[in-house]
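Technical note accompanying the year-one report. For the benefit of new consortium partners, we illustrate the data format agreed upon in the data management plan: each record pairs a sequence with a structure-token string. No post-processing was applied to the example shown here.
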Amino acid sequence: MGRSWETIEKKNLNHNNLDQEAIDFINTIKNTSMSKSYKIPLLWAFYNNGNIKLKIDEDEIYNSFKKFYSNKENAKDLQGQKNTQGYENWGKKEYVKLAKDNPIKYLADKTSQYFYKEDDKFCLSENLQQYIHQNEFIEAFKDAILSIGYRYFKRSNSIEESDNTYMELKELIEDFKESYKEDDYQDEKLRQEFIDKFPLEKLPTLELERYALGGKEKDNLCWWLEFNTVPLGSIKGGNALKFKIYYSKKDNKWIYPSQFSNVEDAWTQMRKDICEFVENFKNGHYDLLNNYSLISSMNMFKTKLLYMYFPKKLLPVYSLDHIQKFLSYFGCSDEEIQALNIVEANMKLKEIQNSNIEFSSWDGLKFMRFLYESPILIKEDNLDKDNIIEECEEIIPVDIINKVENYIKNQGYNYTYNQLSNLYLSLKTKPFTILAGISGTGKSKIIKLLADSINADYTLISVRPDWNDSTDLIGYKNLDDKFIKGQLTKTILKAQQNKNKPHLICLDEMNLARVEYYLSDYLSIIESRKKVGQDIRTDSIVEYQENNETIKLHIPDNIYIIGTVNMDDTTFQFSRKVLDRANTIEFSDVDLDNLFFENNEEIEALNISNDFLKTTYLKTMDIELEYRDYAKEVNKKIIEINEILKKSQKQFAYRVRDEILFYLVENKKANLLDEDTAFDYQIMQKILPAINGSEQSVYQVLIDLLNFILETNDIETVEEAENYLETTTVKYENSAKKIIYMIKGYQNDGYVSYWY
């Protein structure tokens, strides 16, 4: 049956010599959800004492379950349950039913690429045949089962001395104590040096040069936090943008938040925010720690700064992702963890340290090193011991987009930096985007390449012309009243199991059927998004019964739907309901000269968390104070455009206005595109697609809109507009050309359309 939980071997489980297909299978096992222990004996049946089987029958399932649950320590979740009463006396019928109703059903539905049912047998994919006699695969399979067993029993049992979890933890502690030498570390001396240079009482008068990187003063606060105190926990990575204010030697100027007219004003406000933040923490006013807009996103900076001054209250762990993993290890629920901001989460972890008799006498640095150096923690949470302390939580979109562009070019495809930035900003604004254009321009390909480049999950769903409701996507009840999950529902379930990983869904040729028919549930539900702790939740999109439980599924914030469309006579146009809810990105330009791309070096994909794509704003009040003046300026242009559209009843409402603002603010924050290019994209993607009709008023609206875009009042004809474009540099060139195209359509066919 395998090793007992308390004697799991302490070793690295990377299994580097396995093929990627085998590794993916092992990772699927290790990452499977574990609400009950039922998957464990089922997987042991496949393992078969090291003689792995691809098919197991009911006798083999029964024998494995019977053996596993004969150990009372393994049977804790069967004890005292109404539906498992008398399990001690169960025979083949009861155990096989338990297996079929639970792990077999789950694995066949959720991981159908590896598990399937065949008559009375439960089977592994034939693709695994080539590995089942390889010693490394056999060992990896065994370790994966032990891993999920350990994870389940550590969470289901309280940490008391009689528990296996405690025994495991105690072994880790003893091993750590043997290798840890207090004399090797002079960390407190280093922290005191920092305090001497930057006394807490002198923060209110700290000068800009003493704070910022890049200036004349090399011995500054940011340099100390990032580079000179790495043994106290690192916040290295990214670039100086994470400190909000710095001196750029490349540009020979100060970089600071754009709402300020000069760097002195910016520093005055930022220093005030930092001081008030620290003071409120010092006085225990933890409910006020999210009130400081200029430093709201500087998680790692804030947490390390607080640790330097208050080491007894916090731990030197500055990555929110890591803290969450450690909290999970010690039994905190996902709901509890997600509700905590980074300071609260850090304090919770410190509380766990102080309440545990084994750790309470340790200082924070010793406990931090234990967390990162314990092999079980590294194995379970997939943390890299060599790099863990230097992981940076700050996401720098410019860096990531550049790396994504290089990765894609290395694969032999050519998408520009602007195209990728636009796609990113569109998904960041809202997790529903449409890619339109002629066939063969790479609309579907860019979605797959983007997913590959950031190690996101990718699902291709090909739309069928006969889709006239949501059953193929969401699901339906069969004649036996059993809910059959649709393709979108399956992906939602998968995304919920790995919340930190983006899941990109490509709805290929989405307008072969009427989008309003089959996607109506999604289009409505996506508008119900609201923030719950650190998560974004929707109302339930589907509700069904499973194992006598009512399952309510919400659309998680790591689901992104990207539809591809070919606009021709064989497809359906979009309603206003669809267009208002999406950025419609046109792929029409093709560079046929590019035949060959050099890819001399292998470029690895990035491991990017969902925070990179996750929506920041759901309403305009969510926009940070520092960007509100900018949003107001953008809104003036939006109002002007909407006044023009009113002349033909083509005006838009709050949803479109808000999403344009969110796009522009996200771009401003990330510094990806120049402002005119970004606004040009938004005119193209949020405004023009909804303009159509045969009325004379529509034609006049386009002329007026063209004059607005060209910043003139003299244009009355297409010819005048084209001549103007040839001789004048304009801000929104793409939008101008598109409007000219639409006007020509009206002149030729008597009908205005974005598409034809």
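Partners are asked to follow this layout when depositing records. Residues 1-14, 157-167, 376-394 have pLDDT under 50 and may be disordered.
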